[in-house]
Amino acid sequence: MFEDHAKALDTCLTCPSLCQSACPVFLEDSNRSHSPWGLMQTMNRVRRGQIPFDETVAEMSYHCVGCKGCTTQCEHGIEIPPVLEEARQKAVKSDILPSNIKGFVEKFHRHNNPFSKDLLKRLDEILPAQKKQKDPKAIYFASCTTISKTPEIISDTFSLLNKLKIDFVAPYREAIQCCGYPLLSAGAESDFVDLAEVNYHSLKKLPLIVSGSPACTYTLKTAYKKYHFDLEDKVISINEFLKPYLKNINFTLKKKLRTKLMLHDPCYSVRYLDEGLLMRELIAEVSGYPPGEFFDHQNSTSCSGQGGCYSVIEKERADRITKERLKECYEKDTRTVVTQCPSCVFKMRKNSKRIVVKDLVSYLNDCIEEALS
Ligand code: SF4
Ligand code: SF4
Fold it and tell me: I want to staple 38 with a disulfide (CB 3.0 to 4.6 A). Which of 33, 89, 233, 244 is the partner?
């Protein structure tokens, strides 16, 4: 076990844990065995046959939000999430996964999403006026979390597309509205592959897939490819899609939004998709000024607490990570946070009543009145 990660595991073995200050899980629970270094020591002992891969080790592998803060901090660029992904897959295959993760996966299977809801029906309720287009040139893949928890992002996206006179994008209307990321982060690899295969055969027929959520964008572009479902050239993030239109179309602004705001970088936007600068460019393009910054921003961002399946096993701690992140807004007397991940939007809203949390596309839609030509 872990032989593909032997070099990384041995590198961590002799390190004084330089990355732990970047790990939101360790900063919350102060448990060294949950720090990136501690997790790697345990997995290395399993690799060397010093301890068995049992329920305790399996449970530890879920103490990670997959943020890659450790990789950013590490001078060797060690990637810890893939090591823990292997551990979680082994936990599922050996049926020694934590009971709440097991329940999470079982719930997923009821409607092929983590919310146990018919999300296609919900999507039709969110976009009742959106006519079915025959052979659209592009489809918009909203994400299960967006449909279930932050539906206004979908209506705001189509409102913005209308204002920019982009009429060739249709919502993705298939029964499965999830890319499978929740299954992958739970360690349910074979279930993920089954779902990815169904999605792949449906999505590969389409010319262009505009993805609204950074975790979905990464999963559809990169994780699918690893399992030979190659959609890389067809998938584009909503930011990359909007960029040329926002640069080249003249539009009037609804109002000069002088609201003081701070931009929260989701881990998937900056560390997996490298879109930190692009998000800032889009905000500056429509509002005329750059967003306020958290102390930890762009590649040094700090997770909102909702990454991976951490909130499934440690709900209260995950909420505390969110609250800790938002503290800085009060210190800087800022009451608006713009971000771009439905999980971050949902989690931040849930953990603050006094801060307005907006998705980036919703913010752009707020700013723009109409296109002039
Ligand atoms: S990831 Fe890098 S900094 Fe962290 S323990 Fe391993 S070698 Fe050290
Ligand atoms: S990916 Fe994030 S949560 Fe996981 S070990 Fe690294 S810093 Fe900690």
Answer: 33
